[in-house]
């Protein structure tokens, strides 16, 4: 089936088989490999992208279901000049990632969470990320990253670097 | 991880969907959000030959009030039910329950009709519809019929829907001031309930205490007889034969039903 | 100003956050163009003979290139793999693809190769395997008793190896003890479940060399494993390590599937790719822990411990892997940080018809810590002394010279009492006890539990041939950049950043001008990889040493250039240049010394021995006594791993370890039924920890340096997971101890807690 959709702002038209999962469409057809496949039961969220601005698990969406819609991936959060989004920047500044496998999905889920609730409590952040698993960080710094992106950590509190080494 | 191959049709109206179901018979399944069906297809527990996508049929979506009921289109997503001002004001139990399904990503896709038609005995919405005393509107070749929640869930993952019908809308009673409670016992936030309880206006429904969501009739009778929440809740497991798994054996499950029923009757959510 | 000890942001992150890291599944390389895909047919039964395998339907299916079985490998001369250590029963061999017998659900039986990825899952369904079902040895006790038979008839036993000679057990060990307590406890099987499952890609070049991309914890070890399994020449094998999405001990060496895909690539003369599903990962990636322990502890009513015996039964799963010898490490760490006059330990490792058991964050040491700290609490309860006081009384006093234990471990430095006091103070221990007392008196449904642990653990043990060591090459380029080659193998730990910090500190080159490379055996032929919390104390020390040695070489060159004596030169780190003492106008940039001749040093740093980080954890839980559900409210920790190079990253390691350790205590478990069928082989069934079950953690700083390396650093990677498990378990039991509960096995699921309350007859509802 032929599908037409927008991916990270770019219009695309592709011929796909109905069973092609959106995550594989993004990775193999579009070459956008930030989203990862981490499970097979719609549990872990490593594949999370935005569909019409809302977080979805792209392993449980068929590419054909995205026909006529717009998809945003982690790659698409970066500005033309290479500047990361506020959420991405907050993850960097607060060591919200270690191995990085859950990270793009976590960032997309956090982006959607903050779009719907710009002023979350810590508990709301944890509940908002209940569909995103991480094995490395213990979630501590992920939660800090999201609260920081929401502007809820004071500058003194956030885990910044010495100025000369922000590469 | 990957479904078996299937053909894919997009329905542009409810009538079109019905004609496609008629054409393909038992080989076809309806696809709305796909978050009950696709997980099963990915592990090949379901292998329909044809998927009929009804997600874009406008007439099947939306929330409106009609007299003393709210009417919610089958393809309305959980996130929209949970976030709807109308539902939160008029049927707060339903808004709360919809907000408990899975996780945010799942709620952006899963639909109320899909969840009810899937009829997982441990899910949030079947139990909730039962507690509300709501009903489903079913559209088929012969027209539209309404089935009460009490009659809709007939077995594990089995409903009163025929293969050539589609669940088109859900009807729930309006009652913003009606006391209600909701308990979902889980190990992790986005799990299915080990045991769930929804209480509404003297009706009590249980999740995962049998092959379908169940009315705790003995509890309801005790309440009608003037029993307190704690006294009535002692009957929560009467007549149930719950299954068991490594999370909970039958005795513990029955105990949970009693404790959670008491809490739900006391108006607690958790 | 020193960069060491500062919170430097990771240089890895911009890429990881935007385009994503490049994991094996992501690798796009021209050598892999036209790759075909491998999927495995796996056993669906725990124990059976293979009566027949019929691949004919699969061979005829769309896109199928080939189907291989164990017979094909056998005919090609690939021998079954023997257990890794000579003292393990050598009859317990594993064929890469099962031939006549399957011994666990998930064991690979056939490999199907397809043109496209999606065709693989269709094709594996068409391979018809006929099994002759045998009784499953589902538990360790069944393995010992023999009631379900033997996994390896030739071995004549289900015992793999023992450590400690039980015939030498001291019958009078508890003589003179006023109080003796004994309990059989479970350190249950868990799944490492890194977010990246296993995968691989392989191709043989025209030059006859194999290039394999495999996520691993040490490319050199992975290469060695492939060489051994497939009978290859080392010079013909190159292993490349893409970014790795977590490992936790389960990605060392090479698994059957990695070897099979390399072999298939040779057969077909085509590149080959493979990725497993999460279900396969939970079935086949080696599991962790899986010990049954009998702990017996005795002492005086004033809380002094006199004696302790630990008896361990280790489940190896179907084929002996690292898990079989981990009890050796458990035994080594038997007394933990405590001074116990008389202690002994005996371990027995057995095979069962379950997933093989391997190393998992802590690998043998969490088991020892969990046992001794549970024993301390049991003893505290039996003697009526507060658990904090029991620990205070029995911890080894502070020592700065190495301390050898009766089990042969040489603890390098330790201050266990201070760690305990700091943790207790930070937690507000007295206030917590007061709150607990108030809730007990009021009969609250939600009761408060406080759990303690004091631990010490062994890190950085032996690497390649000889003592603990690691190698590094540091090179400075004429353009002012530098390259570091390291034998470590990070998978989230941030070595790219920290190794650059270490070199930057010495050489004055900014970290964004320093490239760190690892994991390619052509570039870095030797290395011990990353595991056992070895990397900073060995690999980081090697980077520092290489940098310093490079400055020595550079100094000689600078002296020659300036026609000065080397001792007249000063290295100005800020300018990254040599100047002449007293004449700062004359300066020779370090990079310029690489122009005429390459400027690099390769060095090996060797430590006198492993180091022993330590700490104390205080866990606070609420337990709903009506349902048994546990809510983890706080974890306060001291994790002393010596001098910290980058506090931001060290904290991250602690957080991750604490979470995993806590998850074992109250949530995660791998479960099998009595026929060896796995019940927790998906992320929906396996209770993998999510963000809503844990709080933010309270970390307390403490640094007791080691003298074993110039950094003063010990290993921090596993410490958090060692301390938190017993603290959380003890907290749960503490919450309901007033109801008469003495012990609850891990994980302290709601059902276990509730049953313990019922059994102790302390509850209001029967």
Describe it for me?
The complex is a heterotrimer of chains A (167), B (270) and C (766). Chain A is α+β, with helices and mostly antiparallel strands and 167 residues long. Chain A contains 5 helices and 5 strands; from the N terminus they run ββαβββαααα. In chain A, helix 2 (86-93) crosses helix 5 (140-149). Chain A starts with a strand and ends in an 18-residue tail after the last helix. The relative contact order of chain A is 0.15. Chain B is of the alpha+beta class and 270 residues long. Chain B folds into 3 domains: 7-53, Uridine Diphospho-n-acetylenolpyruvylglucosamine Reductase, domain 2 (2-Layer Sandwich); 58-173, Uridine Diphospho-n-acetylenolpyruvylglucosamine Reductase, domain 3 (2-Layer Sandwich), CATH 3.30.465; 181-265, Enolase-like, domain 1. Chain B contains 12 helices and 14 strands. Classes of the chains: A alpha+beta (167), B alpha+beta (270), C alpha+beta (766). Chain B binds chain C through residues 1-2, 4-5, 43-44, 185, 187-191, 245-249, 252, 255-256, 259-260, and chain C through 118, 121-122, 125, 277, 279, 626-627, 629, 667, 669, 671, 679-680, 684, 687-690, 692-693, 749-751, 754-755, 765.
Question: What descriptive keywords fit this protein?
Answer:
heterotrimer, B: 270 residues, alpha+beta, Uridine Diphospho-n-acetylenolpyruvylglucosamine Reductase, domain 2, Uridine Diphospho-n-acetylenolpyruvylglucosamine Reductase, domain 3, Enolase-like, domain 1, 3 domains, 5-stranded antiparallel β-sheet, 4-stranded antiparallel β-sheet, 12 helices, globular, C: 766 residues, Aldehyde Oxidoreductase, domain 4, Aldehyde Oxidoreductase, domain 3, 4 domains, 7-stranded mixed β-sheet, 5-stranded mixed β-sheet, 28 strands, 28% helix
Helix-strand layout with pairing:
The complex is a heterotrimer of chains A (167), B (270) and C (766).
Chain A: E1 2-7, E2 10-15, H1 22-29, E3 48-51, E4 54-57, E5 70-72, H2 86-93, H3 103-116, H4 122-128, H5 140-149
Parallel strand pairs in A: 1-5
Antiparallel strand pairs in A: 1-2, 3-4, 3-5
Helix pairs in contact in A: 2-5
Chain B: E1 7-10, H1 14-24, E2 28-31, H2 37-42, E3 50-53, E4 63-66, E5 69-73, H3 78-83, H4 85-90, H5 92-98, H6 104-107, H7 112-118, H8 124-132, E6 135-140, E7 143-148, H9 149-152, E8 153-155, E9 158-159, E10 166-173, E11 180-185, E12 195-200, E13 203-207, E14 214-215, H10 217-224, H11 229-233, H12 250-265
Parallel strand pairs in B: 1-3, 2-3
Antiparallel strand pairs in B: 4-5, 5-10, 6-7, 6-10, 8-9, 11-12, 12-13, 13-14
Chain C: H1 13-18, E1 36-42, E2 48-54, H2 56-59, E3 64-69, H3 70-75, E4 101-102, E5 108-114, H4 117-124, E6 128-133, H5 140-145, E7 159-163, E8 179-190, E9 199-204, E10 210-213, H6 219-230, E11 237-240, H7 256-268, E12 272-275, H8 278-284, E13 288-299, E14 305-315, H9 322-332, E15 342-350, H10 365-383, H11 387-394, E16 403-404, E17 410-411, H12 416-427, H13 429-442, E18 446-456, E19 469-476, E20 482-486, H14 495-507, E21 514-517, H15 535-562, E22 569-572, E23 577-580, E24 583-589, E25 599-606, E26 614-624, E27 630-640, H16 647-666, E28 698-700, H17 719-735, H18 750-759
Helix pairs in contact in C: 9-10, 10-11, 10-17, 14-15, 16-17
